[in-house]
Amino acid sequence: MRSSFLRLAVTRLVLGTSLAQSQDAIQAKTTPEGCRRLNTDADWPSPEAWKAALPGVTAIKPLAKTAPDYRFQAKSIADVQAAVRFAASNNIRLAIISTGHDYMARCDASSGLLLDMSKMNKVKVLESFTPTAKGAESPKDPTNTIVPKPGVQAAVSVQGGVGTQMLNDDLSPSKLFTMGAAYGEVNPVGGWGQFGGHGPLSSQYGLGVDQWLEAKVVTADGEVKIANKVANSDLFWAIRGGGGGAFGVVVEATIKAHNDIPITGYNWWINSTTTGGDGLSQAAEYLAAQLPSVNEKGVSGYFYLSDSNIRAYAIHPGNQSGTAQANEVWKPILEKMQTFAGMKKYQTASHNFKNFKEFYDVTYGARNPTMAAGTPGGGRAIVRRHGPGEDMGDEGGPLNLGKVPLDSRLLGAKHLQNAANFTRALKIVKGNVGLLMVAGNKVAKPDDETSASPAWRKGIVHALAMNMGPSLNMDGFRDLAPEMGAYGNEAFFGDKNWKQVFWGDNYPKLSQIKTKYDPNMTFWVTPGINADLMEVVDGRLCRAKDPAAAVASPTAPLTDSQNLLDLNNKQMLGTSERISDFPKPGTQIGLAPV
Fold first, then answer.
1. Other beta carbons within 10 Å of 587
2. Is 34 exposed, middle or buried (0-12, 13-18, 19+ CB in 10 A)?
3. Per-residue pLDDT tens digits for 512-558
4. CA-CA distance, 530 to 460, in Å (whole number)?
5. Of 461, 494, 527, which residue sits at a domain end?
6. Of 386, 477, 422, 180, whose CA–CA distance to 289 is shortest?
7. What does the pLDDT read at residue 132?
């Protein structure tokens, strides 16, 4: 895998042509048959044609990296329809972005149109929801407030650019919250919610795909499709796991909203006196083996293993909240871990929150409404804390800064309790590993069938490695859990047997649905459904010359965006929790005070 990584770590290209140049200054070429047009082609749309079809469209400055030619910030469903129709009729590359938080750079491209959804962020709270062929009423400003009815599932309708934290801030006055990522700008109904979507409470409430009640999707023909249990049910199944940007543009969605609960966030840290010692490995083995029983108690959390320490941020919601209960769960585990050779005394801290908003704001940082994604210079720069998306550039919208080299595997109880092979897998990684206990419980028993990887339903932990050098290697975890898969939003972009790894037995059905709704591959992402029907030739997207060979390839086709984001472990792994910094030596020893 290391050699594969080196081959994929392609040097960034510089797009040296100003996109606002007149067409007669560019040497015209003929668009090859079966390929998307580039701005050097004779039949490339003129600047006037762009502006006439998409009022407000702006040229994207290259910023020393490959990028689409133009950005269009949609403010309505009609805007999205116009963008999709323009891209399809003019045979140009189309990419869709809402926040840019995409490790695979699926929301990026080296040419064509970038459809920016970040301005579509209206919210409507619902006391209940019943699917109809007509679809839910569209959300409007300002966001309303409701009083949840006992025993009735509340819901919320959102436009396609709303971030997790913005949405939950709007829901808080109704004493509700919804599922989202562990980073506020990530879009619950964007790529996160269309590929799986894990978060701090997914173990208790289900994955992002399990929250959907309905979607309004602009498909490749430019029409709006209502997708729910009674209308276009095949499309509804596909977008709940098939991945963002593959089947159409989700312009609105209705998802579950949950009653507010108290939450306890429980930090613990334990250091080793040696680097990479056997005692630390034994402590990690022991911790991993205990996680299934902790998970059964209704606890989720994030556990970070390095060559000198282990630290955690455990989440105890609802009936599991309270420092006393958290101490009871962790006392026997931590006391055992500190008995292994070279391990120091453990340290803890407990944080009790009265509701979800307080938990989220303190844990991950409160949102400044004037710094929301999609505003000029706006948004906390995701690149600095949690990934590849960032608001930057004169266009004032989100951009994706490139692919992030990482790797992952979903693990079940039997894998975590296989001590010898678990330790072997850790040593092969040669980098820090996060054990994200975000599955099990409700993830294992969803209310409805979705197209997300079946491995999610068997897993407890999403094991994630981020090492920015060529030594990144999760093959030990592949050997540990060969029958499991990986979460396609946070995985190695050169993973072999990618269809099975990311979608399992759901892939053939997803492929058929993709062909039904997008026969001309207007929407193309990789790794993505039917991605191998296309290939990149000389910087442009084309139909695969040898479809049979492409389909048989063990790896997904490379994207046309060759930007690689060079982040380090400190930026990427375990730094999203703002209250998880190591305490001073000799402080906070033992259990947290009640």
1. 9
2. middle
3. 999 999 999 999 999 999 999 999 999 999 999 998 999 899 999 99
4. 29
5. 494
6. 422
7. 99
Residue-range definition of the domain harbouring residue 310 = 263-357+404-494
Alpha-carbon dihedral angle through residues 507, 558, 81, 122, given to the nearest 10 degrees: 80
**pLDDT band, very low/low/confident/very high, at 4 (cuts 50, 70, 90):** very low
CA distance readout (Å), 387 to 248, 255, 391:
24, 25, 12
- Strands 300-305 and 309-317, by their bridges, are antiparallel
Report the alpha-carbon distance of residue 399 to residue 99 in Å, rounded: 7
Stretch among 191-195, 280-284, 572-576 having the lowest mean pLDDT: 572-576
The CA angle 234-160-200, to the nearest 5 degrees, is: 90
CA distance 370 to 156: 23
Please report where in the chains the tokens 């079946």 appear, as a residue: 454
Q: Does residue 239 sit in the same domain as residue 309?
A: no
How would residue 471 be classed by pLDDT, with cut points 50, 70 and 90? Answer: low
Rg (CA), the chain: 24
- 209 and 347 share one domain: no
- Rounded to 10°, the helix 278-296/323-337 angle is 150
The mean pLDDT of the chain is 89
Looking at residue 360, its pLDDT comes to 97
Q: Which residues of 161-198 are buried (b: 16+ CB within 10 A; e: fewer)?
A: bbbbbbbbbbbbebbbbbbbbbbbbbbbbbbbbbbbbb
Q: Do 336 and 233 share a structural domain?
A: no
Which position has the token pair 């095949």? 234
Virtual torsion, Cα 89, 92, 93, 95, nearest 10 deg: -50
Going from the C-alpha of 518 to that of each of 115, 393, 487, the distances in angstroms are 17, 32, 24
Note the helical H segments in 252-405. Answer: 278-296, 323-337, 356-364, 382-385
